[in-house]
Amino acid sequence: MANTFLKSVVDFTKNVKTTGALYQTSKQIEKEICSKIDQETKIVVEFGTGLGNITQRILDKLPADGKLYSFEVQAEFLEDVKALIQDDRLVLINDGAQNFDKYVTEKVDCFISSIPVTLIPKEVVMLALEKSYAALKVGKYFCQVLYSPFHKKKFSAVFDEVEIKTAASVPLGFIHHCQKITA
Ligand SMILES: C[S@@+](CC[C@H](N)C(=O)[O-])C[C@H]1O[C@@H](n2cnc3c(N)ncnc32)[C@H](O)[C@@H]1O
Q: Which atom number of ligand 1 is nearest to the Cα of residue 74?
């Protein structure tokens, strides 16, 4: 366990400009960001697999006939996740969030994103958000973890409702639950 933690710190620090983090998100954040997934959820898309901690939490909540597409730009992280998680419901894709629609053709029940939106060019973020809104089923959620409450506008520009929940962690996590209300 300690070795896994140390490895994640080393991997995340090595790639901090892309990961936007020094270590993996906390259990509290994992719990809150996955709170919209229930037994009716079939198709989930994750942006920013990292070393797979949120990925595993999503799989724990997903029904047996569900499917999770998880996107990560760092191929080496996906190699680690492949070794750690063997689950037929999981499809790992080495590509950016903004290209997810090349691989996911069905309507989506939930998006879970931990990509560093403050480090990625704004036009790339907005493209990913707009494509996500288009692919999302009505009534469903795009959930994003951030470490600041000051980027709500980006999400409100695309989604119909945005609610921010805090997750007690260091640093404090701000989970943006963004809902699509109209078709
Ligand atoms: C803050 S880390 C989160 C990793 C893990 N999900 C967690 O919560 O600990 C963000 C991850 O997003 C990946 N990433 C950055 N830009 C991305 C993009 N455009 N599409 C998909 N993944 C991206 C990074 O390589 C990194 O692994």
A: 25
Domain 26-179 CATH assignment equals 3.40.50.150:
yes
Is residue 5 predicted with pLDDT exceeding 60? no
Atom of ligand 1 nearest to the CA of 24: 9
Which one of 55, 76, 114, 148 would you pick to mutate in the ligand 1 pocket, going by the greatest count of ligand atoms within 8 A of its CB?
114
Residue 97 Cα to ligand 1 midpoint, Å, equals 9
Mean pLDDT in residue range 53-59: 98
Q: Where are the alpha helices (DSSP H) in the chain?
A: 2-14, 16-19, 27-33, 53-61, 75-84, 122-135, 152-156
pTM of the predicted model, to two decimals?
0.93
Calpha distance 129→159 (Å, rounded): 8
Domain boundaries, the chain: 26-179
